[in-house]
Amino acid sequence: MPTDPQLIRNFSIIAHIDHGKSTLADRLLEFTGTIEQRAMQDQVLDTMDIERERGITIKAQPARMDYKAKDGKTYVLNLIDTPGHVDFGYEVSRSLEACEGALLIVDATQGVEAQTLANVHLAVESNLEIVPVINKIDLPSADPERIRQEIEEVIGWPADNAVETSAKNNIGIEAVLEAIVRDVPPPKNNHDKPLRALVFDSFYDSYRGIIVYFRVLDGAITARDRIRFMANKKNFEITELGVLKPNQVKVDRLGPGEVGYLAASIKDVATLVGDTITSAEAPAAEALPGYQPAKPMVFAGIYPVDNEQYPELRDALEKLKLNDSSLFFEPESSEALGFGFRCGFLGLLHMEIIQERLEREYDLNLITTAPSVIYRVTKTDGSIIMVDNPALLPDANHRELIEEPIVTANIIVPNDYVGALMELCQSRRGVYIDMKFLDARRNLLIYEMPLSEIITDFYDQLKSRSRGYASLDYQFLDYRSSKLVKLDVLIAGDPVDALSAIVHADKAASYGRHLAVKLKNVIPRQMFEVPIQAAIGGKIVARTNVSAVRKNVLAKCYGGDISRKRKLLEKQKEGKKRMKSVGRIEIPQEAFMALLKIDSETS
Amino acid sequence: MIETAYIHIPFCSYKCDFCDFAAFAGLNHREGEYFEALSQEIKERLTNTQESVKLSSIYFGGGTPGMVAPHYIKAILDQIASRVELSSDLEICLEATPHSVSKQKLDQWKALGVSRLSVGIESFHEDELRSIGRDHSRQEALRGLELALTSEIPVVSIDFMYGLPTQTLESWQATLDEAIALSQRYPALKHISAYGLQLAENSPLYGRFPRDSDSYPDEELFAAMMFLLIDKLRQAGFVHYEVSNFAKEGFQCRHNSTYWKNRPYLAFGVGAHRYVDGVRSANWRSFNRYIRGFMENEFVEEIDRETEIKEAVMLGLRMRAGIDLAAFSSLYGYRLEESRHQEIERLCEAGYLSIENGRLAITDKGLPISNSIIVALI
Predict the structure, then answer these.
(1) Is the entire prediction scored with pTM above 0.90?
(2) For chain A, which end, N or C, has fewer CB atoms within 10 Å of the first or last residue's CB respectively?
């Protein structure tokens, strides 16, 4: 039997990194007996190793809980966890679509942060009921009164009923559950309509095919149904239907408002997320609105170190794309790196995570080129092209104009660091727009900045110059023309296309010098002297040399040395295998990222 | 067919600061015990060896074999002679320090059939001898060496070290000039080894001269020392036949050449390594452990075909004559020049490798970075 929609509450959690989201989720699972305490591990819903190691949530992982409330009724609570990082705003909006309410968790010692603000606005726009939770009230510096005021002033949401909790010390957990039951509206009971369910996630399982996470909006779905994906126009026979507690538990039928998963031997379907599931026999007339596809903002080339891994890399990207529809990729080739893919990401963290997942989950050895934004270039013949790879920028005499993406950056910063961050924004070509006082201690700084400046080490600088107190959120604003030039790098006299960058003309020469030195430091000495040059439009602006190895010889190699010395040479050989051979030069992975770290030194 | 045998004699008067071998100072009172175990080991192993054995070389290395009473050496030689066939031109080589050499010992060694003496000099420079912690002076070195060179043992080899702390190109040249002068005066001086200093981790030498100390010659100077060595000894009529070894024509060390040709060899004694029946193995390196279990192995490695090829490349390129590509291919079923065509071409172009008369060899220019070259080819 499907659950009475009146007894269902679907909610997500919005929180800044470190404000205690995963811990609170763990406590809710425990309190409702969904997971026994002894079976508990930290961050239950963060299933990827990378998430646990970094203490962040990348991927929304749903959980169904049964909660016997104080009114005597047992409710089904579906938690759809959300990521907190600015890169994953898109994931957040997907999760929100499947909910009627959202817990807003704010750290009682910190206050509302920039990404939280952005996510709450998303939730409010989606008509979600917000349930404010003030966490970490056990800490000596907790100031719930101030936080309450801030929520009301900054977000404009009444916070007098905000629940005070300490997820760490198990305080206020039941009050959170009661607030969810009381304040989050139940889903609409559209049981008499044809089936429509929204796919909000999917991943690949090698035994059962693609597993789909969905929420039923209208009608009901049963384990014996033939279903149709409306956008993909494909029919499938369900082989397994269930709910996530958070482990998969099979059920027979799910009705309006319920959240579940299904398997239907689905293979070779590129994009399921955002699609509408309906019945193959009695299909709905219209699909659900679905999602706006996420626009990748940051592009980089991903290449296998060993060219033979190219097909494996392609397979891995296709599989990752299944549960990360924001990942974009298309084949490209580089003279230096061979065959690889130009990939688009939501941001730098997203890029790092994809690279790490490719290397860990698919055992690939990769080179990622320095990230670039997408430039709009007007050529002399009047045509306009989008350039996501600096190597492909037309020569200066073939282009009329380069425009670059500008974002609005919202930075929340305590009083003490306002000066330092203004300086930082200025040095990154930021244009000051406004400063608002959030409360007596904190300010909202608004700048318009080139996105390319934000993706080169800006976030780390922001954090280090504010001792970790500042937070950042940004949205795409528009394209603006800018004095940009292409910086080329020549190694041993040959241009290495994968090291090219598009940089601002005023900074180009100093960039070039720093890049050359940086490369000199990361490229190991080889049998030959390796000249490194940086050039703008054919003019060399910097040069340096990696001197040749002059001594690498075994003086003695007698009977007792042979095995040991062979192993020594094998180890040297292994070290080389992790590098990319470009011509006769071996270049390590770090070299391709050298550009990223230059700004901290020049600005 | 196994043609060479190595006998390790671990006793020393003093353990040098750079020494990384199974060598022990102050254990002389246990010589009797050791030679008993050694003799027993030789007997048991020679009974068990599958491959046929006909020795053309027996090498006493150490430690300082020159330090022990010659009757011990005799007992070992007798033990071997009673169990395996010996070639009529058998070469018996023995290592000694200059101050372990005496007229009496030289006569006894000659009587035992020792045909080659290897004397560790290291340097003719007083400061350098002290800097690496040798327990003999320049004068002692010269005295012992002249005794050896005037004895009836027909071939004498001496060895030196370079790249030493405080060493300069001038002091190295002076040492080489003195060695060459000796070779001109005494025809018995037919072989010279010269080793670039290579320090093990935790070497006591680091106590006085830390790893990154300015006292060590830098890479550029090291390479210059190597080139000076090669030029000088070549001009003096020595054939440079291996990275660190020079000989008058026909007087290459037969025993050591076995290693570089990747041929099998027997070995006995504490910490000794052998290569027999396709297996590399070694005895215990601890003196007591060896005495208790001289037939046990501390290390065993079966050499598969791939490893064998790598070793053959690594060892073959140590020889200045290099690798005979046709012979290599018929021996290992692997055409090195094809599998590593690109690397070889590139390295030949750069002047680091050469192919002449079907032999692939590292050039003078490539020698100081021979590891990098070998790594490209394995």
Answers:
(1) no
(2) N
What is the predicted ipTM?
A: 0.92
> Alpha-carbon distance B283 to B32, whole Å?
19
Residues B237 and B336 in one domain: no
Residues B19 and B109 in one domain: yes
What is the secondary structure of B218-265 as a DSSP string? -HHHHHHHHHHHHHHHHHTT-EEEETTEEESTT---HHHHHHHTT--B
SS3 of A64, please? Answer: strand
Beta bridge partners of A331: A341
| Domain shared by B254 and B367, yes or no | no
CATH number at residue B309: 1.10.10.920
Q: Which CATH number goes with the domain that contains B143?
A: 3.80.30.20
- Packing angle between helix A114-125 and helix A89-97, nearest 10 degrees? 30
- B248 in the same domain as B342: no
User: Under an 8 A CB cutoff, do B372 and A566 touch?
Assistant: no
Boundary-marking domain end, from B205, B230, B260: B260
Establish if B65 belongs to a structural domain.
yes
The token duo for A218 is 């209208």
Say how many domains are in chain B.
2
Q: Is A247 on the interface with B (CB under 8 A)?
A: no
| pLDDT tens readout for residues B249-296 | 999 999 999 999 999 999 999 999 999 999 999 999 999 999 999 999
Among B6, B259, B378, the residue with its CB nearest the CB of A573 is B378
Same domain, B165 and B34: yes
Q: What is the pLDDT of residue B359?
A: 97
Helix pair B305-316, B325-332: axis angle to 10 deg: 160
If we measure between CA atoms, which residue out of A163, A198, A199, A158 comes closest to residue A179?
A163
Contacts of B21 in chain A (CB under 8 A): 560
Tell me if B265 is assigned to some domain.
no
* Distance, CA of A46 to chain centre: 14
For residues B320 and B214, state if they share a domain.
no
Q: What's the whole-number average pLDDT of chain A? A: 87
Inform me whether the C-beta atom of residue B278 falls under 8 Å from chain A C-beta atoms.
no
Q: Give the gyration radius of chain B's Cα atoms.
A: 21
Q: Is the predicted pLDDT of residue A289 greater than 50, yes or no?
A: yes
- B367–A553 CB contact, under 8 Å: yes
Round to whole Å and give the CA distance between A346 and A351. 8
Cα separations in angstroms, A352 against A264, A306, A458 = 32, 20, 15
3-class secondary structure, A487? strand
Greatest alpha-carbon span in chain A: 87
Model confidence at A292: pLDDT above 70: no
Q: Are residues B314 and B248 both part of a single domain? A: no
> Which chain B residue has the Cα nearest residue A575?
B375
Residues near A369 by beta carbon (within 8 Å), at least 6 away in sequence? A300, A301, A302, A303, A334, A337, A498, A499, A592
Give the structural domain span for B200: 2-260
Q: Note the pLDDT tens digit of each residue in A373-404.
A: 999 999 999 999 999 999 899 988 999 999 99
pLDDT tens for each residue of B313-359: 999 999 999 999 999 999 999 999 999 999 999 999 999 999 999 99
Cis peptide before B187 (omega within 30 of 0): no
Q: Is B375–A573 a contact, with Cβ atoms under 8 angstroms apart?
A: yes
